[in-house]
Known about the structure:
30% helix; Phage tail protein beta-alpha-beta fold; alpha+beta; 3-stranded mixed β-sheet
Amino acid sequence: xxxxxxxxxxxxxxxxxxxxxxxxxxxxxxxxxxxxxxxxxxxxxxxxxxxxxxxxxxxxxxxxxxxxxxxxxxxxxxxxxxxxxxxxxxxxxxxxxxxxxxxxxxxxxxxxxxxxxxxxxxxxxxxxxxxxxxxxxxxxxxxxxxxxxxxxxxxxxxxxxxxxxxxxxxxxxxxxxxxxxxxxxxxxxxxxxxxxxxxxxxxxxxxxxxxxxxxxxxxxxxxxxxxxxxxxxxxxxxxxxxxxxxxxxxxxxxxxxxxxxxxxxxxxxxxxxxxxxxxxxxxxxxxxxxxxxxxxxxxxxxx
Length: 303
């Protein structure tokens, strides 16, 4: 029997010869019984639309909550933050200054990127940008420093009282509260103070005391005296002399019945305190007393 006889028989498509042949087969009797039983079966009622709706509701209720993310947008946000951080870091690093500070009774030397040299006196600070040094040779100074500038582009020293400009020379700048002095030891120095420019050839000084430009005598030697551990003064009020004494020895200086506006001319040692005190007190006709880190200057007739 051909395999498709069963399908044709169920559909009533067998010819008379095919039907006769099918009835002679061993499976015909079994198929007849199967057809009779299946004809008595009744399928249960089934609402397709209702069942589909229930299935959809069940899936929605049990579905996990999902937040849809746009990975590309998230990437852009992260990239933007990175760009901002890198840009900020670049400008921060490139604008960051190198700073050297000396404490009381301390001195320091530093070599700049162009081999210019700075010797920093006690209680002073210099700062400069190493990254931008080739573009602009500029140093900010608070306190006192001696400069040996290598030849090259314009070199400037910025202070609270004014600006010093050179091309290549040796000079000293003291920038203290109420005190501003520039001394040229070699070459030519230009000092800008209150919109007034002053040219200083070697062996000349420029002094501003309490905002007033003062006449000053010719400096001695080829470098400032403090480089050789001496502090030198020419007609400078005692109050400034006492301040320098404090800086060089890290002590506290007080005075009693002493006119600190009196002008002092002289030198004191930066390495021997007793000698320094005598060098100040003798020409000033005052005396002194030491108690620990405190020094009191007073008039000889003061009890």
